[in-house]
Specification:
By secondary structure, the chain is of the alpha/beta class. It has helices spanning 6-17, 33-44, 58-63, 70-81, 101-113, 124-129, 150-157, 162-171, 177-193, 197-204, 209-230, 235-248, 256-260, 266-277, 310-317, 326-333, 342-355, 400-408, 438-443; strands at 22-26, 47-52, 90-95, 117-122, 140-144, 281-287, 298-307, 360-366, 373-376, 378-382, 385-391, 413-420, 425-427, 430-434. It folds into two domains: 6-144, 3-Layer(aba) Sandwich (Rossmann fold); 150-443, no CATH class. The longest helix is centred in the middle third of the chain and has 22 residues, at 209-230. The mean pLDDT is 93.
Length: 445
């Protein structure tokens, strides 16, 4: 079991919310929801029962035929599982609860009973599909589970330099070319492996990148199978596949018809919402009038999509053959691939921001007397101002958009940041940071 930050959120729930609230761990498949729930139960309770509705014996399943009499229900559950429950010292985990909507409806009564605590796990896309005819519990706290972030990844591989990087950031001074190159290579390893626990485990075990890539391909195929179960046209999977392609071609916003190959219809919007509910992608919305209240002028029709895990994104970029050659990963880690991978670094930034429980926004506007446009990659709220962020894959290059943004919205902007592989520095009004320092920038907001 890897150390995960969600365990601290669960401790908050147990101390502040339970027993009046259950907790629901939401997230994409394979991000570690079940493992986190069980590890927390082991650490914090005298005993626990885990009911996995995706892999359940008939004896245990029969227990849920009648939950009306809780005294009998708890006795039957303990008998069927062979585990003793202790009042206020035990927790029951309902794993993959989307498969048993009637049990989720019963959470209200289980919580009101107060004898035990309850942890639910589930995929939001399936939960929404299966709750049309039930009353959802209001006595439920939700925790979003993300792929492992960079700090969690470093914990997993035994790299203890994360705190040092934070200290270097606080100094605000260049770290030096040699050290910066080393820290950037470390971050590129994270970009290559990603934060899916199975892929991280493969890396920790010393498997090569071709083998790690196979693990990630299996996860991608699992997602596509899930999409097909929801919509047998395969179009949700094509929307998912289209994310790296549309970012690579520098589209101003995500175009559904470019993904489906057909004219957009109302059903496609439903498919898009299903894709978003799967938590396998991240949406980043254009704001029409940037200010500290970013959600107020969000344009629901103009948005970009990123993948929730940059490791999966990396695999999808190079998925033209049956397996990805080890040499590609070697060149990626040494930053010697001939292609411009700015969109890969952009996806990494989107994942870091979203993993901090911050919504994604960008801003695009037309140039005067031109068919071209300006675009600022990301906008973050910081107290009464906003922070504008531009992402580059290597050097600082041209940064016309973020400069023009400062001129146009100067009264709203507190800081302009350019993230790349370059060391800490300044370029006119721009503050330059290496991309691995973004988590600490967010901490300062």
């Amino acid at each position: 079991m890897f150390k995960r930050k969600a365990l601290e959120k669960l401790k908050y729930w147990k101390e502040k919310k339970a027993p009046k609230y259950s907790v629901l761990l939401e997230g994409a498949r394979r991000v570690g929801k079940s493992t986190i729930a069980e590890e927390f139960a082991k650490q914090e309770y005298r005993s626990y029962i885990k009911v996995d509705f995706a892999n359940i014996t008939q004896d245990v399943l029969d227990v849920f035929d009648d939950i009306a009499n809780l005294d009998i229900f708890f006795l039957r559950l303990q008998t069927a599982t062979g585990i003793t429950l202790y009042k206020r010292e035990s927790v029951i985990i309902f794993d993959e609860i989307q498969l048993m909507p009637k049990v989720r409806q019963a959470i209200k009564y289980l919580v009101a009973d107060g004898r035990y605590d309850y942890i639910e796990t589930g995929s939001l896309i399936s939960i929404k599909k299966n709750v049309k005819d039930i009353v959802l519990p209001s006595e439920e706290m939700k925790i979003q589970i993300y792929p492992m972030d960079y700090e969690e990844f470093m914990w997993a591989i035994g790299n203890d330099t994360y705190g040092v990087i934070r200290d270097l950031y606080k100094l605000g001074k260049p770290v030096g070319n040699s050290l910066n190159r080393k820290l950037m290579r470390d971050f590129r390893i994270y970009m290559a492996v990603g934060g899916m626990p199975q892929a991280v485990e493969a890396y920790v075990e010393g498997r090569n990148f071709t083998e790690i890539d196979e693990v990630k391909r299996e996860i991608i195929d699992l997602y596509k199978d899930d999409f097909f179960k929801i919509d047998d046209t395969g179009l949700i999977g094509r929307m998912y596949d289209s994310v790296p392609t549309q970012l690579a071609t520098d589209k101003r916003s995500y175009v559904i018809s470019a993904a489906t190959g057909k004219k957009k219809i109302d059903k496609d919007l439903e498919r898009l919402h299903d894709l978003l509910d799967s938590k396998t992608v991240l949406s980043c919305h254009n704001v029409l009038n940037p200010s500290v209240a970013l959600p107020q002028t969000r344009d629901d029709d103009t948005f970009k999509l990123y993948l929730a895990d940059t490791g999966l994104f990396t695999t999808m970029i190079f998925r033209s053959s049956e397996k990805t050659d080890e040499n590609i990963y070697t060149k990626l880690l040494s930053d010697s691939l001939p292609a411009d991978l700015g969109y890969l670094y952009e996806n990494a930034v989107a994942q870091i921001i979203s993993g901090s429980d911050i919504d994604l926004y960008y801003h695009t506007w037309e140039k005067e007397n031109s068919s071209h446009y300006y675009e600022v990659d990301f906008l973050l709220a910081s107290k009464t101002k906003i922070v504008s962020i531009e992402v580059k894959s290597s050097g600082i290059g041209k940064h016309e958009s973020i400069t023009e943004f400062q001129k146009k919205y100067s009264k709203h902007v507190s800081k302009e940041i350019l993230l790349s592989q370059k060391d800490i520095g300044n370029c006119e009004m721009l503050k330059l940071y290496p991309i691995y320092m973004l988590p600490f920038i967010i901490e300062d907001l």
